[in-house]
Amino acid sequence: MAAANSLSLTSAFLPRHGFHGPSHNQNVQLSTQKKQFARKAGSGTITAKFELQPPPYPMDALEPHMSSRTFEFHWGKHHRAYVDNLNKQIDGTELDGKTLEDIILITYNKGSPLPAFNNAAQAWNHQFFWESMKPNGGGEPSGELLELINRDFGSYDTFVKEFKAAAATQFGSGWAWLAYKPEDKKLTLVKTPNAENPLVLGYTALLTIDVWEHAYYLDFQNRRPDYISIFMEKLVSWEAVSSRLKTATA
Ligand SMILES: [Fe+2]
């Protein structure tokens, strides 16, 4: 799949409360979302089935930094299971037919998650994670993104240090995120346990790293800090992050 497509897919997963007014981009995003999460009619019953989207690049495209073996397990087994289990959980319930973002927000239930929350959030988080990376990624951001990083973290080096620390110190399974906080128009770092994500905090997610062991154990065993360093140096798609920021601040 072409890089341009991966960016539009990225935007399709942004929380709706991250949008500020209609725009051409938004129309593109919403139509993509509709296509991705299209309802399927079957034998008189209308059910909304979420479909596991393929990664935006071939599964060996991140070698040698993320092995195809890791990718095949992570996407093909773990991500697939979250989507399949979510479909089973919402089938015939009042959540059937809602967007993935709405299901996440509803089932978060103000911090007392309902049964479908973990699968819904993990389905979203993983798609967002694949789209946070690209072959030949890494390097440094530029433009407005770099300006905001410098403004809100002091420097790019400080940001990297703090992002790595957040990812390394998330106890057990979880995620580290760069997010945009709409109410004070600032970038912020968030680390979340298990399936939680910035949507439930009212923030717009810009970048994430999965720090569940299944994300790195085959390649790095227990060396989570090495996985985090490689992610930042070789895998991050700053184009995706900039595109998400542009949507968040539009
Ligand atoms: Fe994962």
TrEMBL record:
The keyword Iron applies. Residues 23-35 have a biased composition (Polar residues). It is found in: Plastid, Chloroplast. Its cofactor is Fe cation. Its EC number is 1.15.1.1. SUPFAM superfamilies: Fe,Mn superoxide dismutase (SOD), C-terminal domain (SSF54719), Fe,Mn superoxide dismutase (SOD), N-terminal domain (SSF46609). One of its GO terms (molecular function) is superoxide dismutase activity. Its main location: plastid. Keywords: Chloroplast, Iron, Metal-binding, Oxidoreductase, Plastid. It is an enzyme of class 1 (oxidoreductase). It catalyses: 2 superoxide + 2 H(+) = H2O2 + O2. Residues 49-134 form the Manganese/iron superoxide dismutase N-terminal domain. Residues 141-244 form the Manganese/iron superoxide dismutase C-terminal domain. Mn(2+) binds at H74, H126, D210, H214. Residues 18-38 are annotated as: Disordered. Pfam families: Sod_Fe_C (PF02777), Sod_Fe_N (PF00081). One of its GO terms (cellular component) is chloroplast nucleoid. GO terms for biological process: response to light stimulus. Destroys radicals which are normally produced within the cells and which are toxic to biological systems. Belongs to the iron/manganese superoxide dismutase family. This is Superoxide dismutase. It comes from Capsicum baccatum (Peruvian pepper).
